[in-house]
Design brief:
Blueprint lengths: L25 E4 L4 E4 L2 E2 H7 L2 H10 L5 H14 L4 H8 L9 H15 L8 H26 L13 H10 L5 H14 L6 H11 L4 H12 L7 H12 L5 H10 L17 H17 L2 H18 L8 H11 L7 H21 L26
Antiparallel strand pairs: 1-2, 2-3
Helix pairs in contact: 1-8, 2-16, 3-6, 5-6, 5-10, 6-7, 6-16, 7-8, 8-15, 8-16, 9-10, 9-16, 10-16, 11-15, 12-14, 13-14, 13-15
Length: 385
């Protein structure tokens, strides 16, 4: 028989270490704690770049010239508004005001596809234009739903504000300060891409069948929603709030480890060193926490980090990007259940880049499984079962 049957052979669970494709978009050195986008270290981009510029770099392979960047910004701003029908749907009873914002985001991106009558088997350049449209609309969707569920009227995107500042404006109803906007912009840069992560792979698998871009991004959003992927920073903040006091942190960690409970925000499938994104965010978390009245929360986080490094650093377990991002977002006045949608708001550029890159030499994904069920089992008629 030609069945691939279970004879006890080993296989990489979760496809760990399996090479799925070649990519020139981003690379991670997990042993040294390094991350590059298109060859540029993440620390350099966080210091010198903007979300729009880094997004362009990720999507098109090179830093944009001045006119290219201005045209890209213009494209995002022109595509950012939602239609009256889309806003009416969000306000209707079809979208419960108690729904998780990730569910709403997934539904609304799918709805954008329903409304786009030009969907077909498009050439790469048209697919790219459609992806820019999705990138532009995601912040508007998140901001609008947050306002609607609070009983407020959505705020239309501003033509004057850049991508990151515009989201804070649409969520709050007032323009953010320059420092707040810049810190949030850096947070988005740090989340734009991260190699072959689960949501990126999910979007690529859908796109590899030559499905439309809305379906591919909807797949990625659904994957990101899970607490083992994008939902971790919500649970980090809940953990810090549960601990309550800095002096209780070490005991909490000891008890959790003794019970073999996972400490959210620590460890990574790839990194065996300190996540460089977490290192950058920690500095901003500290600054904002003490400015905005979240000092105790940051102190609890530091004590948890100290306890975890003391107990598990020899195993290569350090803070990842989720550990300090929640404090940054909380200090910016962002509710916990918007943390993962914000992750999607940034990562959509990476999803788009990987989808387009893979489609240039597309082959539909079709892995195989080891069969561990019965063979030649007898069929029992219904009346005899």
């Amino acid at each position: 028989m030609a069945f691939i049957v279970d004879v006890g052979q080993e296989f990489p669970r979760g496809l760990e270490g399996v090479i799925a494709c070649k990519s020139a978009i981003s690379a991670i050195d997990g042993e040294e704690g390094l991350l590059i986008y298109r060859g540029i270290p993440i620390e350099v981009l966080a210091e010198k770049s903007t979300f729009e510029e880094t997004s362009y770099l990720i999507l098109f392979g090179e830093l944009p010239k001045k006119d290219e960047l201005e045209n890209f910004k213009k494209d995002l701003k022109e595509n950012a508004p939602l239609s009256d029908d889309e806003l009416s749907f969000m306000k209707s009873d079809s979208i419960p005001k108690t729904a998780h914002p990730m569910d709403v985001l997934r539904t609304m991106v799918s709805l954008l596809g329903v409304a786009d009558k030009s969907i077909g088997t498009d050439p790469i350049d048209i697919k790219t234009e459609r992806l820019k449209k999705i990138i532009a609309k995601i912040p508007t969707i998140i901001g609008a739903f947050h306002r609607i569920r609070e009983g407020k009227e959505p705020v239309a995107p501003s033509d004057e504000l850049p991508h990151a500042a515009n989201f804070l404006y649409m969520m709050r109803g007032e323009k953010p300060g320059e420092e707040e906007a810049r810190i949030f912009d850096i947070a988005l840069i740090l989340h734009i891409d991260h190699g072959m992560n689960a949501s990126t792979f999910s979007g690529m698998v859908t796109a590899s069948s030559l499905s439309d871009m809305y379906s591919a991004i909807t797949s990625a959003i659904g994957t990101l929603k899970g607490p083992l992927h994008g939902g971790a920073n919500e649970r980090v903040l809940a953990m810090l709030e549960e601990i309550g006091e800095p002096e209780k942190a070490e005991e909490y960690v000891k008890n959790a480890l003794a019970q073999k409970k996972k400490i959210m925000g620590f460890g990574h499938r790839v990194y065996k060193a300190y996540d460089p994104r977490a290192r950058i965010l920690k500095g901003f978390a500290k600054k904002l926490a003490y400015e905005k009245g979240f000092g105790k929360l940051f102190e609890i986080a530091e004590k948890v980090e100290e306890a975890m490094i003391k107990n598990l650093s020899h195993k290569g377990i350090f803070p990842n990007v989720d550990f300090y991002s929640g404090i940054v977002y909380s200090a910016l006045g962002i509710p916990k259940d918007l943390f993962t949608p914000i992750f999607a708001m940034a990562r959509v550029s990476g999803w788009a880049a990987h989808i387009i890159e893979y489609l240039h030499e597309n082959r539909i994904f079709r892995p195989r499984a080891i069969y561990n069920g019965p063979i030649e089992k007898e069929y029992v008629p219904l009346e005899m079962r």
